[in-house]
Amino acid sequence: EDNKQRYQRELKEKGCVSNMDAKFRMKDGSVYAGLISTSIIYLDGVRHILSYIRNINDLRQAMEKILHSEEVFSKAFVGSPYAMVISDIETSEIFDVNTMFTKLTGYKKEEALGSTPISLGILTQEDRDNMRKVLKRDGFVRNHVMPVSTKLGKKRFFSYFAEILTIYDEQKLLTIAEDITDRLAMEEKIMGHLAKKEELLARQKEISKELVASREQLRNFITHREEEREEERKRVAREIHDELGQELTALKMDIVRMSEMITDDQEELLARASSMFSKVTNTIKTVQKISRELRPEMLDSLGLVAAIEHEIATFMSTSSLKCKADIDIDDSSLDKNAALSLYRVLQESLTNIARHADATRVNIRLEEHKEHILLEVSDNGRGIRAEDISSPDAYGLIGMQERVNLLKGRIEIKGDKGMGTTVQVTIPTGNGA
């Protein structure tokens, strides 16, 4: 079984790989000895593999030199950057330690000689027994991580390597230890950050779901509010038209009959009757205008195209603006909510042009495409400012945006100084349109 197969098997069976001894090939083709540790983590719900590879080439080469050359043993032993101990295989009695051992553990050489790691308090009996089991089973120890206690009582973590070697015809146990406390702390910190990130991503997903639910609730509320508002407008428009309109018409007829009863020599009364007639006539027109703006009957009876054409004609008759309309749409199957929203957007756009644009010309496009309906209203006026578009007091624009959003459409309002303003609305045909 090669390294790759062993790695895949261990990852599959255990869900992780801990300090597996393997050989790795560099980009330049060179091969080095290393230890690989792998954990499976999840980021944003996606499975990832986090691996850490430690190069132990220098350590392996040092051990091989020590094992195969007693002549270089002393020099390598003393100058090693790792803690090294020579001890009895059975009793663990320490025969020699190097400078790095004293530095890492805090014990002087004379304190260590003749003692054991257990009597010094460096290792527990259980940890020592576990390492001996590995040594007995494999004949060596590779990267066996154990906690140790220093002379000052500080807890550190050492990675142990052990080999049986012959020194002057006697078999001894050579133990090499590396302090990996800082590295483990860094790995733990990284894993903590990853776990925290995963927790934040999970919370972000939860918040996103809550936002979606809130938007849906808000959308339903606005839809219900708009439906109620339109029903109220319809009711008020009907009452104005039926009640007030009829009363004003009756009053107009009474004025006509009264005028017929006034003689020619009663000029002042005739003038007053004529003035009353004109005022009532104008009031009837105002009532009709208010009723139409509240709820255009033509939209319900004849459809969107007829209602828009009538709105444009009324707009031109009450203003000095020229209006060009290009309408290419079959409104026979158009959803009533979509038709009403498009009509209200046009109505509000024309009102804004008349009040604020200082324009002379208006262009209107209403087109039906394969996947959406397009309404565009543009003028040649002074151009709306960006701050006016985003103003919280722009209730008319906010109302337009709400209507379009309810139909899952898109509205874009843009203006260039001195070049006019364009309102463009697209409504998907698959969303009730």
TrEMBL record:
One of its GO terms (molecular function) is ATP binding. InterPro entries: HATPase_C_sf, HATPase_dom, His_kinase_dom, PAS, PAS-like_dom_sf, Sensor_HK_TwoCompSys, Sig_transdc_His_kin_sub3_dim/P. GO terms for cellular component: membrane. Signal peptide: none annotated. Its EC number is 2.7.13.3. Pfam families: HATPase_c (PF02518), HisKA_3 (PF07730). Keywords: ATP-binding, Kinase, Nucleotide-binding, Phosphoprotein, Transferase. Residues 239-431 form the Histidine kinase domain. Residues 69-137 form the PAS domain. PROSITE patterns: HIS_KIN (PS50109), PAS (PS50112). It catalyses: ATP + protein L-histidine = ADP + protein N-phospho-L-histidine. This is histidine kinase. The lineage of its organism: unclassified sequences, metagenomes, ecological metagenomes.
